[in-house]
Amino acid sequence: MTAVGSKCKVCKGPAVIGLRRHHAHFCAEHLQQLCRRQMAKAIEDFDMLSFDDRILVAVSGGKDSLAVWDMLIEAGYQADGLYVGLGIGEYSDSSGGYVRRFADERGLNLQTVDLRDDYGFDIPTASKATKRVPCSACGLSKRRVFDKAALDGRYDVLVTGHNLDDEAAVLYGNTLRWDIDYLARQLPVLPATNGFPKKVKPLIRLTEREMAAWCLVRGIDYIVEECPIAAGNKHLVYKQSLNVIDESSPGAKAAFYLGFLDRMAPILQGRSAAATGQLHDCERCGSPTTSTVCAFCMLIERSAEHDPVPVDMVLPKRARKEIS
Ligand code: Q46
Ligand code: ZN
Ligand code: ZN
């Protein structure tokens, strides 16, 4: 559905985007109104945030995390940013630049952590050293660095920019594997527990396309390139599959994910490892784990003593061809 020549459903002015899920087009002002309302509904429905909370937003330099930071500040929340340098070659250098410019231009407080400088490894090296696929080493590292920054900084809540497309794709993958532990934890709010900060996802009712449009109309400059390691990963394949379904049945993707939250998540309540009391303290760092030593401590140990690995050594074959 293209917006060219179409009129806004609300004011009949020139539309900038057409949204099949809403059977309507919207101008810049009413697109923003829709995004604000959807975020406010998610925050209210799941009791995500209060205006007294000190919020830490994990920002990557991509559209979603910068958009959610912008939307929270605009709505009157107190939100600082956290950027983690992953050491993924030029992609990391460039994404860090977008985040710093965003924060500087708006006078916002940004914290930065660099995996190489602060922990002695980067994602390509961690992937080789632990024989994990890069996104697994990356996801584990980010989660732990986010948790630590939020707890050390005494923030009330950690926000991530996961949108409806992200959550639907993760749900799709978890469902294909019937991974009950992950399904039981796939909630838009994870409460603070011993060793974990409260974590929330205010963009669960908004799509990738809506977030790109938000950035466009708000003049937010973000890194458009995907992480080079993402090329061909399963998450992207799940997203594409859902987009094909949504193309023929507009709204199916939203119904899949929001229906899960409404009808399936309550049934799975109490089924995660954390809820069934299988977690205890890591003997090295004290973080909750199902093993004696947590996966992140193992990753640090193996990676820190490994020779640094350049990013092209861990790129998927397709991305390597494109670069050469
Ligand atoms: S940054 Fe990290 Fe993503 Fe790159 S290595 Fe994978 S997980 S794709 S959001
Ligand atoms: Zn309008
Ligand atoms: Zn540990």
Summary of the model, kept short:
This protein has 324 residues and is α/β, with parallel strands linked by helices.
Strand and helix layout:
Layout: E1 17-19, E2 24-26, H1 28-45, E3 54-58, H2 63-75, E4 78-85, H3 89-106, E5 110-114, H4 115-119, H5 123-130, H6 134-152, E6 157-159, H7 164-176, H8 180-185, E7 189-190, E8 198-200, H9 208-218, H10 234-248, H11 252-268, E9 280-281, E10 288-289, H12 295-304, H13 317-323
Parallel strand pairs: 3-4, 3-6, 4-5, 6-8
Antiparallel strand pairs: 1-2, 7-8, 9-10
Helix pairs in contact: 1-9, 2-9, 5-6, 5-12, 7-10, 7-11
The structure holds Fe4 H S5 and zinc ion (2 copies).
The site of one zinc ion has 8 residues, from helix 12.
CATH level-3 fold name = Rossmann fold
Q: Specify the helix fraction band.
A: 40-55%
Give the CATH superfamily. Answer: HUPs
Strand content is 5-15%
Biggest sheet, strands in spatial order?
A: 5-4-3-6-8-7
Number of strands: 10
Largest sheet: 6 strands, mixed
How many helical elements? 13
CATH class: Alpha Beta
User: How many domain regions?
Assistant: 1
User: What class would the helix/strand composition place it in?
Assistant: alpha/beta
How do the helices and strands follow one another from N- to C-terminus?
EEHEHEHEHHHEHHEEHHHEEHH
Distance between the termini: 36 Å
**Residue-averaged pLDDT:** 93
What does this structure look like?
With 324 residues, the protein is an alpha/beta fold. Helix content is 49%, strand content 11%. It is built from 13 helices and 10 strands. The protein has helices at 28-45, 63-75, 89-106, 115-119, 123-130, 134-152, 164-176, 180-185, 208-218, 234-248, 252-268, 295-304, 317-323; strands at residues 17-19, 24-26, 54-58, 78-85, 110-114, 157-159, 189-190, 198-200, 280-281, 288-289. The model has no long low-confidence stretch (mean pLDDT 93). Bound molecules: Fe4 H S5 and zinc ion (ZN) (2 copies). One zinc ion binds next to helix 12.
